[in-house]
Structures are given as C-alpha cells and as structure tokens.
Amino acid sequence: MNNKLFTKIKSIAFLVTLFFCCTSLYSQSAMTNVESRNTTNLNGDWTVIIDPTGTGDWRQVWKEKKPEKKTDFYEYSFEGSPTMKVPGDFNSQMVEITYLEGIVWYKKEFTHTTKSNKRNFIHFGAVNYVADVYLNGEHIGSHEGGFTPFQFEITDKIKSGKNALVVKVNNKRLKNGLPSLGFDWFNYGGITRDVNLIETSKCYIEDYHIQLEKHSDNEVLGWVQLNGVSKSEKVKIKIPELNIEYETISNKNGLAEVKFSGEFELWSPQNPKLYSVIIKSKNDEVTDEIGFRTIEIKGKEVLLNNKPIFFKSVNIHEENPYKAAKAYSEEDALILLNWAKELGCNMVRLAHYPHSEHMVKLAEKMGLMVWSELPVYQHIEFSNPDVPQKMDLMMKEMIRRDRNRAAVVLWSLSNETYSFTENRDNALIELTKQCKLLDDTRLITHVINNQGYDNNTFNVWDTLYNHVDIIALNEYLGWYVPWQGKPSETKWKFVNDKPVFISEFGGESLYGSNYGPKDEAASWSEEYQEKIYQDQIEMFNNVPNLIGVCPWILVDYRSSGRMHPVYQKGYNRKGLISENGEKKKSWYIMKEYFQTENN
Ligand code: GCU
C-alpha cells in the first residue's frame, strides 16, 4: 500500500470517527488494549430492574427520583432491587427471565477523584444488544451490537466523589439488526463483558497497527493514532527482546506512520511466539504482547509464514456448557480451547460473532489460529439503509480490537446470506472492499451454503466468491441433505480455482442415546452422527483445493429453536462433545483425522 493512499485512508477513517463523535450520542470507537491502561474495573454486582414491558423509559428510571412531598411515590427503585453479576448474561442469572428478550436496567455506583490534566472514559467489552448509558442521571450515549467493544468519554460529566452509572440493556431482536430476527444460538442479553473506567492523559495512544507488511517476514508496516493532539508529536516503539528502538513522528491529527524491520521469530501454532512491544508517546505508554507472522494465498494454497497450511479447525459458540451461560472469562475460554487443542486443531472458528478478547488472546497464546466473524447471519435486511452502516461500524469495531493479534488470520464478513436477498451482493461486496482497505494483511471471506447438489455433484457458485480470498462453504450431507451416491465419488464444480474451506458439516446426536435403530437419523444416536463423520472424511479426499475443514460444532449448545423434548431440550446437538463434557463417538473420528493431517 503506498504512503499517499495510506495517509488518505487513515485521514478519511479519522474524519469518519470525528464525525461520529461530534454529531451523535453514539458511542466512540473503543481505544485499543484496555488491559494496558489505567483502569478502575467496574465488574461485580450491579443492581438491576427487570423491565419486561419497557415502562422504564417513560418512568425515566435513570433519574432515580425520590419522593419529596408526602404525596409523592415512584413505582421503581434500584434500592431494594436484586443484583446481577457483570460481566455475564442476565438470562442465566434469574430463572424468571430465562427467555427474556427485552429490557433490563443495570446500576453501578463508583467513587472517583477527578484530575484537571486527565480524561475519563467508560469502556464496555460488549453489551447485547442495544445499550443506553446514563451517568449521574444524564444520557451519555448508546451503542448497537452485542459482540464488540465501545466507549464514552465522560471527562466533563464524571464527578469527584460518588457517581451513578445506569445502563439500559435491550436484547430484543431487530429486523434491521445484526443478526436479524432468526439465528440458531441462544440470545443471551446483558452486560456480557468487562466494564472499565479508564483514565488517560489529555493526549493518549488511541489505536495502533503493529504487524508485518503483507508478503514480508521482517518488515513491520503500521501506524499509531494519538488522540488529543493538535500538533506533531514523537512516538517510540520498543521491542526490548530484539533491541529495537524505533522513533517516528505523528502528523497534526495524531497519525504516525510506522515502518521498521526486525529478525522476528514468527508466530505459528507450533511456536506461538509473542514479543513485548512498548508504544510510547509524550504523555502515554502502552505495552502489548504481539506476534508476527505472514498469512497469504499462493495459487490454491494458504501459506502461513511461507509454508502451506491446512486449517484443522472447529466451530465454537461463546457459551460455557457447564454453566449453560454466556462465556466471558479466561476460565470459560480455557474449557473450550483446551478441547479444541485436544481434538488436534490448529485453528478455531469463533461463530458467528466476535468472541471476547480473553478468548482471542488465549487462543493466540495456545497456538490456535482464529477465524473472526461478523453476525451478518442468514436473513439480513440488506435493503434497509441502516444495515450497511451498522455492518461497517461493527466490522471496524471488530478489526480495531484484534488487528494486532497475529493469531487472527481471517475476517469472515457473513454467514449463509442469500444471493436472492435484495441489495445483498452490493452491500457485501462494498463491505469486503472496506475490509481490505482497513486490513490487507489477513484473509477475507464470506461463508455460503447455497451450492447446488445434484447427482452426487456439488456446483459451488456465488457472486461473492469472486471477492474473497478463500471459498468457505457449509454443507450438511448425511444430515439435512441425504447422500446421492458414495461419499468417495462425490464430485465438485467450483466457480473459480481458489482454496476451499469446509466451514461447517456434521449432524446431531444425543450423547448415549439408545433410542431406535442406529442407522436412522431419528435415533439421534452417536452411531448415526459417527457415520456422517466417516462419510465426510471419505469425501474430503476428493475435494479440490481443500485447505481446511471445520466441524459444526465443538460442543452441544443452547438454541431455543431446537425443541425436541427428548433429544434436544433447547440444545443444538451437533456437538462432538455433550454439554456435560462427554465425548461422542464422532469426536474420536475427527481427532484421528486431524492426527493424519500432519501440519
Ligand atoms: C447452519 C448455521 C449454523 C447452524 C447450523 C445448524 O449452517 O451456520 O449457525 O447452527 O447450520 O443447522 O446446526
């Protein structure tokens, strides 16, 4: 990317952010690397008001009115209300609201001492789905989207002493939402990730991109964005382990270009090497653990650090199976990622939305590549003018948080959308272009399942396949779609010659199910599921340009639409493991297959 284009893109991105900050009460793009900031963590018990009918708005509960005159009374109060844990979903914390898709009001009090030379921000790791945030009775802004971070600057609103933070959380499904009305996972609502009060200096390091330049294993090409500057400022980047001390200077908008070289031990699943990288400006300093690797396409192959790689992947939903609750902590991530490692994976597809930073950082430390995806899922209202904007913002939030994670090798921008949906092609092609502009160092794809299957032959085509780096397709032969011939004789026709990834396959079984003949789907038997896996693996041998496979799914997970009272009980049972951690027969088939794939 030449410098002129680079400066132009960054300046446009900078102006867009500026426009958003100035014109609406919409949230700001969150600063990068909260872990390395001066934070006051606001996790813990928050008082809550459950508001199933949504009367809290006209009652203005954020004002916390108190009776003054003898005749006064108010039909709500946080005092005397129950508490809930933050982070965490609200559905699993109170049985009465297990299936609530609506409003819960949260309140947290905290004390603070304001300092004249400091700025203050409230940062949320994620809130599902729409968050309206109030501080000391005043609305400070809102955010839509359940899986990406956001923040508000509260420098001129925070008080010295006691402050009251109120968050209205609404997980009601929206037709023009992302996802829209229908999705096959549990709609956990709540303040689902960490909340932090962040104090910075007047001018702070807002964001940075410190990664290898495309096609280079020793040239770093990136930038640092300062916030709050009005003139150029020096920026230093240090990598003590490599004796690298690099200095650059920002322009008056705070953008500093970064270009230096180093003899890096490259990050890979076998050697998940991370370097301590210090980014320093006049009044701020952050430290990040960053890996350096290259990922690119060469003909029909994917190369990691210039060597062909086969993605041994598995799909994961962000759920702690033992708690039947939204996963949010490092401990939750460890349960899921340890299973993925045990299965023999070198990658995890975090379906169908950005998972927590804990999950991504832990995967990186454990040597698992990460497939990060936007919840642009199935029936999206692409013709609604708000939708492309929402997609764009969510993509920017996703990339911004994880752009320095070497483990993240691919951005997936949609799953199973339909080419017949109005404006789908235009909207997703435009989104792909924007994604490439924001980050051309990673692979980009769209997951599709509208391939034809006739006479035991797949016909794989979609307009979007001309705009992606790899072809990613979901197929459920043996479950939703019966085989039309021997798996070993299945034929494939592709629209182009790109590398191919089977992003979903599999079928359902109830662990230990002993109901009915094992060769019938309705037995929900492990044997029936096992056969699906054996057949799929046989078919994989003749899939041209196959660079990876990814079973749906690692562990049984909650989905309210899965209603069979005996076999499903509100669970999608396509897991290789049951929600109690029991390994199904198909687990061993997949583990053995990954053992044969020697890379
Ligand atoms: C789809 C979809 C998944 C879903 C799965 C299933 O392909 O992408 O989200 O859960 O199929 O039907 O189990």
UniProtKB/TrEMBL annotation:
InterPro entries: Beta-gal/glucu_dom_sf (IPR036156), Galactose-bd-like_sf (IPR008979), GH (IPR017853), Glyco_hydro_2 (IPR006101), Glyco_hydro_2_AS (IPR023232), Glyco_hydro_2_cat (IPR006103), Glyco_hydro_2_N (IPR006104), Ig-like_fold (IPR013783). Gene3D superfamilies: Galactose-binding domain-like, Glycosidases, Immunoglobulins. Keywords: Glycosidase, Hydrolase, Signal. Residues 203-293 form the Glycoside hydrolase family 2 immunoglobulin-like beta-sandwich domain. One of its GO terms (molecular function) is carbohydrate binding. Coiled coil: none annotated. Residues 295-592 form the Glycoside hydrolase family 2 catalytic domain. Residues 1-29 form the signal peptide. It comes from the Bacteria. The keyword Transmembrane does not apply. Residues 56-200 form the Glycosyl hydrolases family 2 sugar binding domain. GO terms for biological process: carbohydrate metabolic process; glucuronoside catabolic process. Pfam families: Glyco_hydro_2, Glyco_hydro_2_C, Glyco_hydro_2_N. Its EC number is 3.2.1.31. Belongs to the glycosyl hydrolase 2 family. This is Beta-glucuronidase. It comes from Urechidicola croceus.
